[in-house]
Design goal:
heterotrimer, A mainly beta (320), B mainly alpha (172), C mainly alpha (199), A: mainly beta, Phosphorylase Kinase, domain 1, seven-stranded antiparallel sheet, 21 strands, globular, B: mainly alpha
């Protein structure tokens, strides 16, 4: 075990007690990741964030050649998401739009590598929690307490038998619950292929598909936060947003939370830009202008992190 | 007005009459002074003697530099509807579990930011006006979600988050 | 209609971007919170810093407050955490105590102050304020004094006070207001109203 695991100090989320990451908890975490990879299931869960409570049906079919997952959101804006190994398709019946995203496989450091789980322990103190029943399954809780204020804490409840994640909670700075996913009904295994057919898309639907290519931002003169503790760059691409707006995207991650930095030119933008911090539950968005470009930082982290990364973005004309 | 403030601070003013005193409290006049003094009196009567008198002013100065937090109230029907749908979708024990979850463990978080009328923001000063999400926030969110490690932990479920308030409020 | 409702209204406004509403809550609770935190953080100058920090943290966390508990209870917990984190950062431990019960905000009695937390500069003036309040209280007509004591010390609603004092609610309202104004009249010369004065 690295020294990062020994003598870990628990602050923030779990209060003043001193605690350390335990091998048992790491083992459970590993099981959860494996279950997410391997299991087929179908169920219903509720997503809560503030007063927003949305119920969704979710189905996953795991096959050797890759899995297919479908999410039908039953509240709020009607939408359906279909995710396969190569792409994610978001269907919006109300606006008759399908948005296709490719390039997910470009991410470095997929979670299942053993060293990635160990790396989580550098930034979180991971310990076992209580037993509980969720959706009829006997679960064990695992706590991930952040070691600093740049990230949230988490509490996960996993089925004791299969490791399936039944409930997940994101915990903010003062211990408040920022968002929560809870299964209310779940059947593991035995998923019929027909359940994963996508929504019917007839003529008249608009398809937005973005092309994504790896990029090297440093070459074009951009630099940013090399030093945000615990966060590593995992992706750097050129892509299109929405109706073919070209943008550069860099993603940093600590293994559990991610922050994306988007950089796009301001030339030719008709809308006025509003800079500053906006909040959407667990997700914070920070925008600022740099060298006639708009920098938008989107993070599943407390506001401090998106602001910090955003404020380090710099441009120096290449060749100087 | 001072009488209204006295009633208001005791929680004895009916909601429909509170608008005017609350509006008066925004300024620096008689109403605010009354709020300040009457609370000071209450504390003094209870034997409290703490802190310099400009404490609130100093906190106000720091507050001015903070990003404005926003958690606009949602249509009250929304949470109820979710509860009903969830109960019909779930069966038996799971349905009861849902009721318990929503009632006993309310997560506390801001709802997405609502569209506010656009205000020009001086670039140097930290955002003072409530800041709406960027236009086309959904596109950024989806592009971000593609690479979020939450997908390794929870499969496709986190995509439920990827809808900004703009959309929830009423379609694009 | 209870005292908590004005808090709820102010919180709702603050959550819609009204910072002034939050300032009114600060005005209302800062002495009470400081008093509490002085049990953990002994140095008076530090108490002020920690209390201020707690309010800022509370402001940032405000979107997450849903009103399931009373505002002060929620604020209280943030205050305790802030103080504990502060002590830990300083390498000190919070007093293990039977006196400080971290999760029992409602049961906390005002009279259990362990230590006065005045900063040296404000000692004289705050003593004068306390003396003025006490003196005026003693000079008040009995029914005004009783009304404001029942309200401020016992935390009773106008309705309950009306029952105890056997008078209409309107009379209760009026007595409390007149008591406050009588004391305020004597305090105004001491404090002034200019914002740039220390008091």
């Amino acid at each position: 075990m690295s020294r990062a695991l020994a003598g870990a100090l628990l602050i923030g989320v779990a209060g003043a007690a001193y605690a350390q990451t335990t091998p048992e908890a790491l083992g459970w975490l590993r099981r959860i990741y494996e279950a997410t990879q391997k299991l087929s299931y179908s169920g219903t869960f509720v997503f809560q964030q503030g007063e927003r409570a949305e119920t969704s049906r979710i189905t996953r079919l795991a096959l050797r050649e890759g899995s297919t997952e479908k999410l039908e959101v039953l509240d709020g804006v009607p939408r359906e998401i279909l995710r396969t190994r190569d792409e994610v398709r978001c269907y919006y019946p109300q606006s008759r739009t399908v948005k296709v995203d490719r390039g997910g496989e470009l991410r470095a450091f997929p979670a299942l590598l053993p060293e990635q789980i160990a790396r989580l322990a550098e930034n979180y103190t991971i310990t076992m929690g209580e037993t509980a029943r969720v959706a009829g399954y006997d679960c064990r809780a695992i706590s991930l307490a952040p070691k600093d204020g740049l990230r949230y804490g988490y509490k996960l409840w996993a089925d004791a038998k299969t490791g399936m994640l039944l409930k997940a909670r994101t915990i903010g700075e003062n211990g408040s619950v920022v968002e929560q996913f809870t299964f209310t009904q779940l059947a593991i295994g035995n998923v019929a292929r027909e359940r994963l057919r996508p929504a019917k898309v007839e003529g008249g639907w608009r398809v937005e598909a973005a092309s994504v290519t790896p990029a090297d931002l440093a070459r074009s003169g951009w630099s940013m936060a090399a030093d945000l503790p615990g966060f590593r760059k995992v992706v750097e691409v050129r892509r299109q947003l929405g109706e073919a707006r070209p943008v550069r995207q860099v993603v940093f991650s600590d293994g559990l939370a991610a922050v994306s930095v988007f950089i796009e030119p301001l030339e030719g933008r008709r809308e006025p830009t509003r800079t500053g911090l906006a909040t959407m539950g667990a997700i914070n968005v920070y925008t600022r202008e740099v060298a006639n470009h708009l920098v938008t930082v989107v993070g599943e982290t407390p506001a401090a992190s998106v602001q910090r990364i955003g404020n380090t973005v710099e441009y120096r004309r290449p060749g100087n | 007005m001072k009488e209204r403030i006295s009633e208001l601070m005791d929680g004895e003013l009916p909601e429909r009459e509170a608008a005017a005193p609350l509006a008066a409290l925004r300024g620096d006049g008689e109403a605010s002074e009354a709020w300040r003094l009457y609370h000071l009196i209450g504390d003094a009567v209870r034997g409290s003697r703490a802190l310099p008198g400009d404490f609130t002013t100093r906190v106000a100065e720091r507050l001015a530099r903070e990003p404005t937090v926003l958690a606009p109230g949602r249509a009250p029907g929304m949470a109820q509807r979710a509860l009903r749908v969830a109960m019909y979708a779930a069966a038996g024990i799971a349905g009861i579990a849902l009721v318990v979850n929503l009632a006993v463990e309310p997560p506390q978080a801001p709802a997405p930011v609502a569209q506010a009328p656009q205000k020009p923001v001086a670039p140097k000063v930290a955002a003072q006006a409530p800041l709406p999400l960027p236009l086309a926030a959904d596109d950024y969110l989806r592009a971000h979600q593609l690479y979020s490690p939450r997908g390794d932990l929870q499969g496709v479920a986190p995509y439920v988050r990827m809808v900004s308030e703009e959309n929830v409020a009423g379609g694009r | 209609m209870a005292d908590g409702d004005i808090d709820r209204q102010l919180v709702a406004r603050a959550q819609r971007g009204d910072k002034r509403a939050f300032e009114l809550l600060v005005e209302k609770y800062h002495r009470k919170l400081a008093r509490l935190l002085s049990r953990l953080v002994r140095d008076p100058a530090e108490v002020e810093d920690v209390t201020q920090e707690a309010f800022i943290k509370a402001y940032r966390a405000l979107p997450g407050f849903r009103g399931d508990s009373a505002f002060y209870t929620w604020l209280y917990r943030i205050g305790i955490n802030t103080a504990k984190n502060y002590l830990m950062a300083m390498g000190r431990r919070a007093p293990t105590s039977t006196e400080v019960v971290a999760d029992d905000a409602e049961g906390f009695a005002e009279g259990e102050l362990l230590r006065d937390i005045n900063t040296p500069e404000s000692v004289l003036l705050s003593q004068e304020i306390a003396a003025t309040v006490n003196a005026t209280m003693e000079e008040l007509p009995k029914e005004l004094r009783e009304a404001i004591q029942l309200r401020e010390i016992d935390g009773m609603s106008y309705e309950d006070i009306a029952k105890i004092m056997d008078c209409p609610i309107g009379t209760v309202r009026s007595r409390i207001f007149r008591a406050r104004e009588a004391i305020a009249e004597r305090l105004r010369p001491l404090l002034g109203t200019a914002k740039d004065r220390r008091w």
